[in-house]
Amino acid sequence: MNINNLFFHIHYCNFRRFKDTRKYSTRIARTLEHHELILVIGGQGSVTVDHKKYQFKAGMLFYIRPGVFHSMEFDLEDPLCFLAVHFSYAQVNLMEGRWTLGEEPEMLPLHTAQDLKDYYQIEEIFSKLVEGWNAKLPGYEFTAKTALQLLLIAIYQNHKRHNQNFSTSLKVEKVIGYMQEHISTRVTLPELAGLVQLSPAYLSRAFKEITGYSPIEFFSRIKMDKAKELILEGSGKKVKEIAGELGYADEFYFSRIFKRIEGISPSEFYSKNVHVV
């Protein structure tokens, strides 16, 4: 799933910390119409999701999907300490210079329950998210949405570090580095696969799982980001010159790629963003 074009909305955040004197129910049973992330930081209890029971433990992360019935039980002697965020999201696309809402996006690529290793960074980001939400200072909603995105990235990176396919992730990062170093040339999938000693099919599959894009599509996006940078420099370079700098012999092919990714042509991008005095 590609989360790059998701727009998040936070409904609310809640928490319970050590020595918290607030009274809580010993059992909750419910079905939510939105998503919830819960990070356990202490205490005893359990959650049952889809007829499967999980014991609470510090460092456990739970992802509750919309429409899924679940129940939680808490220990009065050692009450649960947790951080939680309730949120929804929509897929937002920029096509032909217009913003549109996509079809209902897939669920986030998270397990219902996962035992995080070295979760302290995740706890720190989660704490800032919850504390910022509850402080209600000016701009707290925007700040909280940004923190939620950082939280999801941290969760993904934590999983990547401790996953048995970590070596594959490193190879994908090496391929991306190679792309950046060779942005002015043309590269092929077999060339990239040979660089990291993987088959083209395996690299393509792993690359898309990690980045959300195929290797060649990702390379095109890197090139188009550079093209926007060159256009905004205001150097007066022609589209043909910029295309050539990025390894495109055909300026019309370059323009088609640019429009597919950015939603408008290079010349339209220039006219909308560069104003010569």
Automatic annotation (TrEMBL):
Keyword 4Fe-4S: no
Origin superkingdom: Bacteria
Protein keywords: DNA-binding, Transcription, Transcription regulation
Keyword Transcription set for record: yes
Pfam family, one: AraC_binding
HTH araC/xylS-type domain: residues covered: 173-272
InterPro entries membership: AraC-bd, Homeodomain-like_sf, HTH-like, HTH_AraC, RmlC-like_jellyroll, Tscrpt_reg_AraC-type_HTH
Residue spans crossing the bilayer: none
This protein's name: AraC family transcriptional regulator
